[in-house]
Design goal:
The complex is a heterodimer of chains A (about 400) and B (about 250). Chain A contains 14 helices and one strand. Helices cover about 70% and strands about 0% of the residues of chain A. Chain A has a domain of about 180 residues. Chain A is mostly helical. The two termini of chain A are about 35 Å apart. By secondary structure, chain B is α+β, with helices and mostly antiparallel strands. In chain B, about 30% of the residues lie in helices and about 15% in strands. Chain B has a three-stranded mixed β-sheet with strand order 8-1-9. Chain B has a two-stranded antiparallel sheet with strand order 2-3. Classes of the chains: A mainly alpha (about 400), B alpha+beta (about 250). Chains A and B meet through α5, α6 and β1 of A and β2, β3, α4, α5 and β6 of B.
């Protein structure tokens, strides 16, 4: 598949997403899998995943500028391009899933400063500006001397951005699955992992397709870093559930999510199989197993599994957190209701919702493909000698 | 449990003022009623009043849905025979205490909190609380993000999943925005009571009392002072405007 073929392939997904949006907005959201109990569905799973990953895609640039690691410097521009493109894809989904996407201008001009959502609008817009300037400074030789400062600002901003995204859930006091300040740091570490997995895939794919040399030194460094991030996400997930398991009031939610009680078997399966096994344990084994150090296919598979695990994690957090019944009447059993009080909600994503999500991913990749083609985001060579002249083969 | 958080300094002030005025007035009851209720259309809503509701669950009849029907009729809410996505402003819930086995029936709707989580999270300020305590959605600036529905501890809000046909001019609604009980603000502003309360009285249950929580002489305040009233999820400290007896 040539370059234009790739763009056409991705463009088809974007068109499908736009068609889905028209279908959902024209008929109203009743045609989706969402309802009055599950108000954020599959589009939010994709959107929040991409927004979190956008911040994480900036890892490599942050390491080069903030922590002054020379080996990463040639890799940094791609990092900023990927960060911007993932955010574009995520926000595209989020906006198109609004009840009134035509009122985007209202969201941009009217702010309730107590709302973490309103702060996020500012954080997203600021991210585009700061990371855009950062990319410009890195690519423009006359401005390069300032790139370190821009990189530092971008580093602080991306931490704030992911804190804001995690806090959307952390600040929801009424729902047992949320209401935890730990959501903010957990989302930050999730961003490190998901963003780096996507970065590595794009890096390897683009060097492969453009037949440029990519040495093992830099790939192996990123591989080891990825392993640390995956393990860190797992640690945060364990602490999150241990905290809930300690508090009696959250036992119901934990039985729901971990054991599948109370109609939660779908969510517990996605948690154990998708998030823990496929998304954490198998990638860790693939990253650290002896003898696979230089195997690109193993690493690429691990990255794909981390992305699948990340989507599974978003699904359990976003959908699972809503599906578990809210404790409106503590100590009471609901005998009759017309509004699903006390009942677990089963959510099944509709095709338009999935197409909208995939369209967001396709949009991100189109921006990456255009950026790589038009601007100098990719160095001609990243072979071992170019990256690190003092490197000696193992 | 009688809630202590209703503005007591103002209550004492109103009480003392009212007593002084009552001594000078020939018809003190009428005068006090005017202070609490009257609001000419050109006059801004003030925090001199706080509208609330008291529901006696012992009087709320199991199986009776007069309040629900009246609300739907009043506000033009139509079912599309899709319960999962139909709008619900008020619903009847039947509960059993897991410890004692006591069965309770009650209507559940927006609790018109003093500190509403929906207002806190709304990015555009479409979710708002009036000075008189009524929590509303400004349909003109609601972008349909549904964050308020995530935040409401009472599941009091619904998303307009379908095209709204034939909305009432006093209760604007629209596809793609979020809506909830308005405490029949259009009636309240003209000195009336919400449709659900009227229907409950018409059905001779008398389980719902509407009134000004800040007026010590209002029926609701007297009843709350005498017999108390509980908040649902009082642990969240939202100081709800809707209180319940018998739960």
């Amino acid at each position: 598949m040539g370059y234009l073929g790739l763009l056409a392939f991705l463009g088809a997904f974007v068109l499908a997403a736009l068609g889905s949006t028209y279908y959902m907005e024209h008929n109203g959201h009743w045609v989706t899998g969402m309802n009055n109990q599950i108000v954020w569905g599959m589009p939010h799973v994709f959107a929040v995943f991409l927004i979190v990953a956008a911040s994480g895609a900036l890892n490599v640039a942050s390491i080069s500028s903030v922590f002054n690691q020379k080996i990463y410097k040639p890799l940094a521009p791609l990092s900023t391009l990927l960060a911007l493109s993932l955010l574009i894809g995520g926000l595209m989904i989020l906006v198109l899933d609004l009840g009134r996407p035509d009122r985007l201008i209202v969201a941009m001009t009217k702010y309730n400063f107590k709302s973490i959502f309103a702060w996020n609008m500012i954080l997203y817009n600021g991210f585009f500006v700061i990371v855009g300037v950062y990319a410009w400074f890195m690519l423009d030789h006359t401005m390069k001397k300032y790139s370190r400062y821009a990189g530092f600002a971008a580093f602080i901003w991306r931490l704030a951005l992911t804190t804001g995204t995690g806090s959307i859930f952390g600040f929801l006091v009424a729902r047992p699955g949320y209401d935890m300040a730990m959501m903010a740091p957990m989302f930050i570490i999730m961003s490190f992992s998901f963003g780096l997995a996507i970065y590595l895939l794009v890096l390897m794919a683009s060097y492969n397709w453009t037949q440029r040399p990519l040495g093992d030194v830099v790939v192996n460094r990123l591989r080891k870093l990825l392993g640390v991030f995956v393990a860190a996400v797992l640690y945060f997930v364990i602490v999150y559930h241990l905290t809930n398991l300690y508090a009696t009031e959250h036992h119901g939610f934990e039985a729901f999510m971990l054991l599948g009680d109370n109609g939660g078997s779908k969510y517990s399966s996605i948690f154990w199989v998708g998030q823990i096994l496929l998304g954490s344990l198998i990638p860790l084994a693939m990253i650290y197993a002896p003898g696979v150090a230089n195997c690109r296919k193993t690493l690429a598979t691990a990255c794909v599994l981390i992305i699948i695990g990340g989507l599974a994690q978003m699904y359990t957090i976003i959908i699972g957190g809503q599906a578990y019944p809210m404790e409106i009447f503590p100590g009471m059993e609901v005998l009759e209701t017309t509004f699903a009080d006390g009942a677990t909600t089963i959510y099944s994503a509709s095709l338009p919702e999935i197409l909208l999500g995939l369209g967001g991913i396709a949009m991100s990749l189109i921006v990456v493909a255009l950026g790589i083609k038009v601007l100098g985001f990719l160095p001609q060579s990243l072979d071992d000698a170019t990256v690190d002249p003092h490197h000696k083969a193992d | 449990m009688i809630e202590k958080t209703i503005n007591f300094s103002r209550r004492i002030f109103v009480e003392k003022t009212a007593t002084a005025v009552a001594g000078l007035s020939i018809a003190p009851g009428v005068f006090l009623n005017q202070v609490a209720q009257a609001k000419p259309a050109d006059q801004a809503v003030t925090s001199d009043v706080r509208w609330g509701m008291l529901i006696d669950t012992n009087k709320c009849a199991t199986g009776c849905t007069a309040c629900v029907s009246a609300c739907n009729e009043e506000n033009g809410i139509q079912s599309h025979n899709r319960p999962a996505t139909d709008q619900v402003w008020i619903r009847k819930v039947k509960l059993r205490d897991k410890q004692t086995g006591h069965v309770t029936s009650l209507p559940m709707m927006c609790q018109h909190c003093e500190h509403p989580p929906c207002v806190d999270v709304c990015p555009t300020g479409a979710s708002m609380k009036r000075e008189d305590g009524i929590v509303l959605v400004d349909k003109h600036i609601c972008i349909g993000c549904r964050y308020c529905m995530m935040a409401c501890p009472y599941k009091a809000r619904s998303f307009a999943h379908e095209t709204v046909t034939d909305p009432k001019e006093y209760a604007p609604r629209g596809k793609g925005t979020v809506e909830a009980c308005t405490l029949c603000v259009h009636r309240v502003d003209e000195g009336g009571t919400p449709a659900c309360v009227e229907a409950c009285n018409a059905a001779e249950h008398g389980a719902m009392i509407f009134g000004d929580l800040k007026d010590p002489n209002s029926e609701i305040s007297k009843e709350l002072e005498k017999h108390g009233g509980k908040q649902i999820r009082a642990d969240l400290n939202l100081n709800t405007g809707v209180r319940y007896q018998g739960i």
